[in-house]
Amino acid sequence: MLERLPDVRTDSSLAAARTLWQGDLSSAIGRVLKWVLTLGFVGVIAASAVGAWRFSDLFYEDGLLPATEVSEPPYADGSVVSIDDDVITIDVADTASPAIRRDGRFGIRWPGGRGEVGEILDSHTLTVVRRFVRVDGMPAPGDEVTVDSTTFYGDPASAMAIGFSEVDISTELGEFPAWYVAGESDTWVVITHGKGVDRTEALRALPTFVSAGYPALVISYRNDVDAQPDPSGMYRFGLTEWRDLQAGVQWALDQGAARVVLMGYSMGGAITMEFMHRSPFSERVAGVILDAPMLDLSRTIDRGAEDQGIPSILTSMSKALAATRFGLNWSEMNYLAKLDRIAVPILLFHGTDDARVPIELSEDLAAALPHSVTFVPVDGAGHVESWNVDQAVYESALRELLDAVDRTAGAGP
After folding, report:
1. What does pTM read for this prediction?
2. Average of per-residue pLDDT across 356-366
């Protein structure tokens, strides 16, 4: 391409010199400046196009492409320095998740074992000392660990001694597994986990529903490791997954539920909101619980790119490419523009330190539905870490929402 440009040492210079001899100095300078600026603009556009294509590739790989199997965590948060029954000292890695230094109740895993970490007893530049609860195995000095919000692993029975049944939900793509926990109420809670995780995400809230007498159904959906893939082969951030939630609600109604409360984590929040917008069963919903909901994918990507120092023009080009390459409709994934059918109480949690889904999205939802939304921002919590950082506030808010649903229904469990 460059060899086709005029040689600035010959054609352009001679033209400029000829103009100078004719006494038109400003015209010569303007002509050369225009050539230089044109070359620079073309270079920037070319570089931006390459960067935008690669950025859209990364979005596909990290955002749209589902995992095909459950993989081991990276164990990149640090390594065990010492452990003494209920106290663990961890050498914190440069790659550590912020959760390792957040007070609260978090899960900890190491190769071959798992447990919980709690109160931070001491913290230094390189190490952190925390309360430790053994669950399965015992770490040894030198073991690499990962700390995250999941906290509980397995199923309701193995993780917290809650009886349950594994049931199959008939969806348009086949039979999808779900956990069913029986209860006395005719109001059921149907729970949808977030992207890239599994049903274990719901275990933190499950005891509150069980103790209140509510049956609970924890669903899986397309692209889960134990479910069928979406026909597109990609996550659709609620635009197709809502039909799997609808199948779960249909199952609950067929089993005798009079009404349901929907709970969605992260992308599960987007699925819940699209269900409320699209499903005829939304009339049977008595309340909604959202935890760090992904209410606008476009703005979520904008914030993430901004935090990484990516220029906004590159982000915009990448999103345009992704829309064309992967069949994305950004406006359809703005759930803040789809609130017209929501007239039930909404309980909304969001951590103030959420680096994945901007808390501003939840603030906008609360502002748009001030009479319906109870907004609980949790100071210092990261993405879906509100329960972990303040379990008492979280569970109290859940019980208040259930009480409000009972009052509306005219009967409790």
Report:
1. 0.87
2. 98
